[in-house]
Amino acid sequence: MREIFENIIMCLIGGTLYVGVEILMRGYSHYSMFVCGGICFLLVGATGKNILENNRRAVKAIANIMIMGSLIITTLELGTGIVVNLLFGMNVWDYSDMNYNVMGQICPLFSALWALLSLPCVYINSVIRKYIFGEKIEYM
User: What is the pLDDT of residues 50-107, one digit of tens each?
Assistant: First the structure.
């Protein structure tokens, strides 16, 4: 039960952080980004924690976090985009004018940005888990 509660809290924190970043960057956001951002924060944080606990070589761990984070976020962005933008027609974002986009929902430029965003995501996630939830985090 505690793990479920902690995961819900992490999703709420992640959703809030992502919406905040989006408002700072483009001036607005959408509630679907709160949900997607929260889930991404939870999954990227857990994946990063796993990578760091199982790999002591920093450069390799950082590269793996960036690759896995980008894959997780891009996949969730595609799924969210198909539902929110294409199925429900909410037009929250549209990458149609970007090179090599897929259905206007994902593109390489934003996948690269998600790779970069994965690093602070894992760090913030780990800090919260260590100092708020009292988890033993060996790599911090």
Answer: 999 998 788 899 999 999 999 999 999 999 999 999 999 999 999 999 999 999 999 9
Round to whole Å and give the CA distance between 19 and 104: 21
Q: Under a CB-based contact definition with an 8 Å cutoff, are residues 106 and 96 in contact?
A: no
Q: What is the DSSP letter of 92?
A: S
Q: Is the pTM of this model over 0.90?
A: yes
Task: Give the burial class of 80: count Cβ atoms within 10 A of its Cβ; 0-12 exposed, 13-18 middle, 19 or more buried.
Answer: buried
Instruction: Give domain limits for the chain.
Output: 2-131
The CA distance from 106 to 98, in Å, is 9
